[in-house]
């Protein structure tokens, strides 16, 4: 049903203005952003299908431009650009939080931030969060990319980037495209290798986070660091 055919108090825009954004469902908020549906499918239905496809708001925030292009009804460049822009704003908002406060005062924010960047990649990516002496975020860099099963990580490159950022500590991170976030023996060995290499330049490894669609694991929390 088109939004104009709904009763005035059930239309998302009027509902938001009268009762505030908290009164709207996820689908209604997303429908406001999408504005229009497609032939035979109203915008509320399209919004709900989009949420179902990505597993809710959290899953949608992990989507990238290629993911969005695959959704029927989001084929127009203007609509795709608007949606991707909002998703990027959410990512940047999380990054600002991590720059302004000590990272491990909000450990879940670290996991969410890394999921937004890495969880939906179809290949393995090894990234590093570089932190200052107060454990605030200086930069996130994706240093290595690999196949679906492995990534070649060079400790020398990680050390050089840590020195360039004048980092006092790092959080290592990589994704598992297979979906499981359990660390392998290779993951544990790599963590210890990087920990030893970075210790030579007085940079601490605070954690190694493994992310997958909808989940993340902290090796520090599991006692594997």
Relevant terms:
Cytidine Deaminase, domain 2, 2 domains, five-stranded mixed β-sheet, 5 strands, 44% helix, elongated
Structure description:
This protein has 9 helices and 5 strands. It has 225 residues and is α+β, with helices and mostly antiparallel strands. It folds into 2 domains: 3-92, Orthogonal Bundle (DNA polymerase, domain 1), CATH 1.10.150; 105-218, Cytidine Deaminase, domain 2 (3-Layer(aba) Sandwich), CATH 3.40.140.10.
Mean pLDDT: 80
What is the number of E strands? 5
Q: Which blocks of ≥5 consecutive residues have pLDDT under 50?
A: none
CATH fold assignment of the largest domain = Cytidine Deaminase, domain 2
Percent strand equals 15-25%
Secondary structure layout plus pairing:
Layout: H1 12-19, H2 26-34, H3 43-54, H4 57-61, H5 65-69, H6 77-100, H7 107-118, E1 125-131, E2 137-145, H8 155-164, E3 169-175, H9 185-199, E4 204-212, E5 215-218
Parallel strand pairs: 3-4
Antiparallel strand pairs: 1-2, 1-3, 4-5
Helix pairs in contact: 2-3, 6-7, 8-9
In a nutshell, what does this entry contain?
With 225 residues, the chain is an alpha+beta fold. The protein has 2 domains: 3-92, Orthogonal Bundle (DNA polymerase, domain 1), CATH 1.10.150; 105-218, 3-Layer(aba) Sandwich (Cytidine Deaminase, domain 2), CATH 3.40.140.10.
